[in-house]
Design goal:
The chain has about 190 residues and is of the alpha+beta class. A hairpin with a 4-residue loop joins strand 2 and strand 3. Helix 4 runs antiparallel to helix 5. The two termini are about 25 Å apart.
Length: about 190
């Protein structure tokens, strides 16, 4: 099943996901370059809402650009298998070795705004991340490592504390809270 088919089959959790689903589908059908950063306005990203086996803790990294604890994820960088991207990013950003998806199904959809910022000495203009989130399990016993230049901390948080650890109001109120609500319904 193609990514477009997966997103078309995905049942939105709320109005935010419903509206964002429409935008992501439209962009996928319109812009062939959104799997790379060559499109300066919008590109595909994948995230993992990464939980332990008992699903009572979330693995987060302190993201240097946003100065906030956040989920793990990143750019597709040409890869169209976004589950593979999410798994790669969780491993790279946390050092966790034992990482697996709960399923291959999409867990959540988001259109995220990214403010302009400096990265590796270059200015990156404000843009959109068309994000696909997957529910990922990582072994809580794995050694965690910082990804130099990208994050300055990696740790497990109880579900509610993970939401509060973020200093980004939109993520706290609309994304992380939603992801936890969905997790509690599994």
């Amino acid at each position: 099943m193609t990514l477009i088919q997966q997103i078309e089959a995905y049942v939105p959790f709320n109005e935010q996901e419903e509206r964002d689903r429409e935008i992501i589908l439209s962009a996928l059908k319109t812009y062939p370059d959104i799997f790379t950063r060559e499109n300066p306005v919008l590109h595909m990203t994948a995230s993992g809402w990464t939980v332990n086996q008992s699903r009572d803790k979330v693995l987060m990294a302190y993201h240097n650009i946003y100065n906030s604890w956040s989920w793990l994820g990143g750019h597709a960088d040409g890869e169209q298998d976004l589950l593979a991207v999410a798994l790669r990013e969780v491993r790279e950003e946390s050092g966790a070795a034992h990482v697996k998806p709960f399923s291959g199904e999409i867990y959540s959809l988001e259109v995220l705004t990214v403010d302009g910022h400096w990265k590796r000495g270059k200015y990156v203009s404000s843009h959109l991340h068309l994000n696909v989130t997957y529910l990922i399990e990582a072994a809580e016993t794995d050694a965690l490592t910082i990804r130099e230049g990208e994050n300055s901390g990696v740790q497990w948080f109880p579900l509610d504390e993970a939401v509060q650890a973020s200093s980004e109001p939109w993520f706290r109120e609309h994304i992380y809270t939603k992801l936890n609500e969905k997790l509690k319904r599994l």
